[in-house]
Each structure stands twice: as C-alpha cells, then as structure tokens.
Amino acid sequence: MPHLRTDRIPAAAAAVLVGALAVAAPAGAAEPAPTVTLGQASCNSPDEVTLPLILGGPPGVDPGTFRIALRSGNPALVVPTRTPTVDRVSTLNVFNLLLPTVAGQRGVADVTIAVAHGAAETRLPVTVRKGYATMTGTDRADVLLGGPGPQTLRGRGGPDTLCGGDGDDVLDGGDGDDTIDGGRGLDRADGGTGDDAVHGGTGPDTLDGGPGADRVTGDTGGDHLSGGEGDDYLNAHTGDDRLDGGPGADSVDGGDGNDRLDGGPGDDWVYGGRGDDVDTGGPGGDDFVTTYNDILTDYRPAEGDTRHRVAG
C-alpha cells in the first residue's frame, strides 16, 4: 500500500500555493505503482482544472503525477498525467495551485490526494489568503482562474489556460499554445506566441491572437479582434465589431452586426455576415462573401479577388 504523508502548504500572493504536498512510498519494490486519474483543464468546468506536478526524489525515480481534488465549492484541481513508478520515498511538489477568492476573503479548503491503488486517501488543509489582483504562471502548463472583479492573469511559458471570470480583466497567455476566456466584462486578451484559442465572452472586448495560427472569437458586444501574424480564424459573432486578420491567410467572419473587416496581407476569406459591413481584403488574392448591403473597399479582380453575394 502506498503511504502518504502530508505537509502544511505555504500560501503565497494571489492564493498561489507552492511547496511539498506529500511523500509517497510503496510498501515494497514489487508493489504495483499507484494508478492516477487524469483530469482536463477547462474554463467551463471550474470543479476540475489541471496544473503540473513534479515528482522528484532519489536517482532512478521517474517523473509522475498525482490527482489533487479540492473538496469545496471553490474551483481548483491539480492533476498530473502519468503514473509514478517509485520504489522509494519521493517528494511530490506542486507549483501554482490557484484558488480564486473574493478580495478580502480568507478560508481553509480540504485538498484530497487520491491514489486509486490501495486505500490511500489523505486530506491536508490549504490556507487561502486574501485574493490579489495579479496572478502569474510559470514556464509550465498553468491554469489561472480569475474571480469577481478586475484581474490580471499572465500565463508566461507553456500551454496555459486563463479564465477571466467576472470583471474587466487583462489576460496574457505568453509563449505556448494557450486557451483564454475573458468571461464577463470588458476584457483585454493577448494570446502571445503560439497557436492560441482566445475568446472574449460577453462585453466589448479587445482580443489579439499574437504570432501563430490562432482562433480568436468574440461574443456579444462590440469587439475588436486581431489575428496577428499567422493563418488565423476570427469570428466576432454578434455586435458592431472590428476585425483585423493581420499577415497570413486568414478567415475573418464579422457575424451579425455592422462590422468593419480587414483581412490584412495574404490570401484571405472575408465574411461580412448579416448587417451593413465595410470589408477590406488587403494585399493578396482575397475571397469576399458579402450581402448586397456591404461595402468593399479594395475589390480588385485583376489581383485575384473574388466576390460571392448572399442574401442579407
């Protein structure tokens, strides 16, 4: 049977918890390694999100991961991906476990380290400090969950998940293939370098995919969407929006509303959608899909542009 010893976790600013969580020691070398359940990160599933764990110890111990579930209404979970193959005592460390809290709120939550192999389930107390306005990730794959009120979330390196929540937030994915959701409020989001998925949520948002093949989507409200360098997909959905594909072969869709679209340099698809739109293809051979109410500023068939009219 694996044995788990728990330690007090020191709390840091913005409710970032860093430190040793547990020590796992199977009874003998012949004991099968514990089975670990894998979770998935999602802004829409606040009860189960993932963060990286590092299993370090004596030479010869392979990296592995455990599942740590928060036993409360607060959204936080830490899940690694592989089964540890340990035959000696090894220390399990977690970096950047983020517990979003209302500003000024304190509390204690029970975290469970659950190992499927054997009857090893241990709880340890986690002290939640006052919520801070800025959360910063690591160079690994982090999950940053914002709460009520304006916050700044910076993912830094790795494939991060940033969830803005309510409030006017600033979100920066940094390097890596990031997933960003601004949530409610007037948000500013930048995917940074990598192939990112950036969603603004409700409210008039300013969204930038950054370098890479990005997917940038608005929602309700008058949004400003930029693809940056790379072959991007932009969809503003409803509202009077501004879209700029940037350099690359982009697909730009204004959705409903009176929009201004610019494909930027490259061979782009420009969809005005419903409403009275102003469409610009930019340099390159562009394909325009427009209603009869749309205005095309640079339709040049001699340069390879084509136009497809649909009912508006």
TrEMBL record:
Residues 166-180 have a biased composition (Acidic residues). It comes from the Bacteria. Pfam families: HemolysinCabind. GO terms for molecular function: calcium ion binding. SUPFAM superfamilies: beta-Roll. Keywords: Secreted, Signal. One of its GO terms (cellular component) is extracellular region. InterPro entries: Hemolysin-typ_Ca-bd_CS, Hemolysn_Ca-bd, RTX_toxin/Mannuronan_C5-epim, Serralysin-like_metalloprot_C. Residues 145-287 are annotated as: Disordered. Residues 1-29 form the signal peptide. It is found in: Secreted. PANTHER family: S-LAYER PROTEIN. This is Uncharacterized protein. It comes from Pilimelia terevasa.
